[in-house]
Amino acid sequence: MVIGIIGGGASGMAAALAAAEHPMAQVVLLERQARVGRKLSATGNGRCNLTNLHAMEGGYHGGDPSFVAYALKKFDVEETLRWFARLGLVTTAEPSGRVYPYSDQANSVVDVLRFALDRESIRSELGFEVQKVRKDLQGFLVEGTGGQLRCDALIVACGGLAGTKLGGTMSGYQILRALGHRVTRLRPALVQLKCGWSGVSALKGVRCNCHAAVLRDGALFRQSQGELQFTQYGLSGPVIFEVSRDVCFGKGDWKCRLDFLPQMSREELYAELVRRRSGGRGVEDLLVGILHNRLGRVLTKEAGLGQDLPVSALSDRQLHSIVQAVKGLDVALTEPMGMDCAQVTAGGVLTDDFDPRTMESRLVPGLYACGEVLDIDGDCGGYNLQWAWSSGRLAGSSAGKGRT
Ligand SMILES: Cc1cc2nc3c(=O)[nH]c(=O)nc-3n(C[C@H](O)[C@H](O)[C@H](O)COP(=O)(O)OP(=O)(O)OC[C@H]3O[C@@H](n4cnc5c(N)ncnc54)[C@H](O)[C@@H]3O)c2cc1C
């Protein structure tokens, strides 16, 4: 039995290895890029956050987030870590639950998968971009830049549109749509947000811990706490990725309220500023030792204070304005950055038309899909790769078993 897999990314490689566990399966992995796992090697800032000890159903989004439940239970985090250990990968978990290769190199993850693919029952065809798929009575005819392939079962593991420079493409959606599947609107998720605050450019590159609350027309839309990074255009970093899904989609006044000192109350900060007022510093140094120096200066300016004032001249009202800038800075959000900057695609191929227990299409027998091409996206912190491993292995093992 020949099983064709389109896409040699995270879910495609997992599917290939699971399918090849079945003695009758001959697997052909078709990858349009010159090597497998190109995006994978850039994940987690080159470290690859391959899963999260807390990854569970609640961390996923899409038209029907419960679609992930069976795959995540069958190939859960523990099983995933055992599987990687069998492949030779030593991993380490951070207190947050994020799991990384012990080597701290994403390439280690790609390498152990690549080595495992090197077996007789798996043929990898690199530089093979699938352009067309036809279903007939004998199975599937797959055509592309590398020629033709006939297969009995076909797994579409083309990933999503996010991270276009690393291989994100519309291809999987187009292939599945041509076979009768429906695709939702696609949006960038886990993405930087552009903002209309003039202070941002002076803070480019600054990282800090904060609580970020996205407000739509004044009402809380989403919130999180963690690391923020300022970019030339706006806000980035894990805390922003976590709140970015669907921000600025739909009308409304979108704002991000930033608390740069979530561990300290307004009263405590005010008391500390009163204490500092008796010192001999200038306003520009008022927040030294509390916040990143550049951030401190920008926030005191934001509070409307001249930088050359001595702190001793500050009124109680002025101290309250600084507390407000530090603990409740409202930044207008304009739009998310594009798909090229996003880590994951929100939206995708409707999961209603797939069986969550096998990942097989309900419309085309023998056709399977896994990973990001489906209308599933996970939270920041290893959830998306866990979905790729779980759904890929489920699709591969179901296809390997053949139709029952
Ligand atoms: C910069 C960045 C950092 C990220 N960091 C993390 C992280 O640390 N942790 C985490 O959990 N998630 C992370 N993600 C998300 C995660 O990488 C993806 O969700 C995951 O790789 C999806 O797996 P996939 O197999 O569905 O798709 P991919 O890994 O994208 O693989 C799809 C493959 O299919 C190939 N392909 C597409 N069309 C065709 C075609 N027509 N013919 C042949 N081949 C084709 C592509 O070239 C690609 O190799 C990150 C994403 C980005 C962009």
Average pLDDT metric: 95
Query: What is the name of the CATH topology of the largest domain?
Result: FAD/NAD(P)-binding domain
CATH architecture verdict of the largest domain = 3-Layer(bba) Sandwich
Please give the order of strands in the largest beta sheet. 13-16-15-14-17-18
The gross shape turns out to be elongated
Structural class: alpha+beta
Total number of beta strands: 21
CATH class of the largest domain: Alpha Beta
Biggest pleated-sheet summary: 6 strands, antiparallel, barrel
The distinct bound ligands, ions and cofactors come out as: flavin-adenine dinucleotide
Note the beta-strand portion. 25-35%
Describe the structure.
The protein is an alpha+beta fold and 404 residues long. It folds into 2 domains: 2-188 and 346-401, 3-Layer(bba) Sandwich (FAD/NAD(P)-binding domain), CATH 3.50.50; 192-337, Helicase, Ruva Protein, domain 3 (Orthogonal Bundle), CATH 1.10.8. Helices cover 27% and strands 25% of the residues. It contains 11 helices and 21 strands. The chain is elongated, with a radius of gyration of 25 Å. It starts with a strand and ends with a helix. 47% of the residues are buried. The site of flavin-adenine dinucleotide has 41 residues, from helix 1, strand 2, helix 2, helix 6 and helix 11.
